[in-house]
């Protein structure tokens, strides 16, 4: 089973991999790779970390979990990625005409975006030889309030550079978009991120291997 298939099944609530579902996942993956082009950007900035607070580029991120994640870091990458408007358009169409495909498309988009972010991280590591990349941390995760998306938009100029917009409730458009902070450390052994760091152990999307 490929990484894309595993991630899509996870986003489907760790669904059982029967023949019909795997065929639908394969079809969605082929369509995604042919029709949707992910885009991303990043910015490397000095940061100041104190108890419950991280400062960068004139913005303050209030979060004890983020501060712990970045403890010992003097710099961080601020990054964003999006699948663009086409992914959202197709989801709306499938939601009206083909609900099973819509569900798999939704999960496949999440897996595809995660795959793209993984490739971005590989590039960030090459950009910072001798340093260690901490796990990504996004607004809306843990105690980092979703309202911090506005600071991410300002730091990365996301409206101008990626064509993203932000709703009054701080949701990004297109919806299949992510912002994140990844610290740079002088030493290995970074704190865990993702499912391993999340206290919600009953989440249906939780990775089974953690």
Textual characterization of the structure:
Helix content is 41%, strand content 20%. The protein is α+β, with helices and mostly antiparallel strands and 210 residues long. The strands form three sheets. The chain has a four-stranded antiparallel β-sheet, sandwiched between helices. A three-stranded antiparallel β-sheet has the order 2-3-4. β7 (165-166) and β8 (172-173) form a beta hairpin. It is globular.
Defining key terms:
7 helices; 9 strands; 3-stranded antiparallel β-sheet; 210 residues; alpha+beta; 4-stranded antiparallel β-sheet; disordered C terminus
How are the secondary structure elements laid out?
Blueprint: H1 3-11, H2 19-35, E1 39-46, E2 48-50, E3 53-56, E4 59-62, H3 64-69, E5 75-82, H4 85-97, H5 99-127, E6 132-133, H6 149-156, H7 158-161, E7 165-166, E8 172-173, E9 177-185
Antiparallel strand pairs: 1-5, 2-3, 3-4, 5-9, 6-9, 7-8
């Amino acid at each position: 089973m490929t990484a894309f298939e595993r991630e899509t099944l996870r986003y489907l609530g760790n669904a059982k991999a029967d023949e019909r579902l795997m065929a639908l996942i394969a079809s969605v993956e082929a369509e995604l790779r042919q029709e949707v082009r992910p885009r991303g950007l990043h910015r490397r900035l000095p940061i100041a970390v104190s108890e419950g607070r991280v400062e960068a580029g004139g913005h303050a991120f209030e979060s004890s979990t983020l501060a712990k994640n970045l403890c010992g870091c003097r710099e961080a990458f601020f990054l964003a990625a999006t699948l663009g408007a086409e992914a959202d358009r197709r989801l709306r169409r499938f939601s009206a005409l083909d609900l099973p495909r819509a569900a798999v498309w939704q999960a496949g988009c999440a897996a595809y975006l995660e795959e793209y972010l993984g490739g971005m991280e590989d590039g960030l590591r090459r950009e910072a030889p001798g340093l260690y990349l901490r796990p990504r941390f996004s607004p809306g995760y843990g105690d980092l309030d979703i309202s911090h998306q506005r600071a991410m938009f300002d730091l990365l100029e996301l409206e101008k550079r990626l064509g993203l917009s932000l709703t009054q409730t701080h949701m990004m458009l297109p919806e299949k978009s992510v912002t994140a902070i990844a610290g740079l450390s002088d030493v290995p052994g970074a704190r865990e991120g993702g499912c391993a760091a999340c206290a919600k152990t009953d989440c249906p999307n939780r990775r089974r291997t953690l």
